Amino acid sequence: MARPAPDIRAAAAEQVAALKATRDAHHKEVNRLKAAADEEMWRGIADVLDAGDLLQVDVVAVTGFTRDHIAKRTKPYRAT
Fold this sequence. Notes:
By secondary structure, the chain is mainly alpha-helical. It has a domain at 29-80.
């Protein structure tokens, strides 16, 4: 296969760079949304635990996370 002309290569490289920039922007937005969803969930779980409406073992059963993981992730949001 013959090498493409320099101007064609440059245009294709610009196209790939634009595609990569779009991908990176989408990944950044996804990561932001995931972090916001995590914070909302852990803050909400902390509120439920603080209200005494559910035990940590119940949260384990519902979420599938370990008690240690739940304790670590809710600690910043716990009132006690």
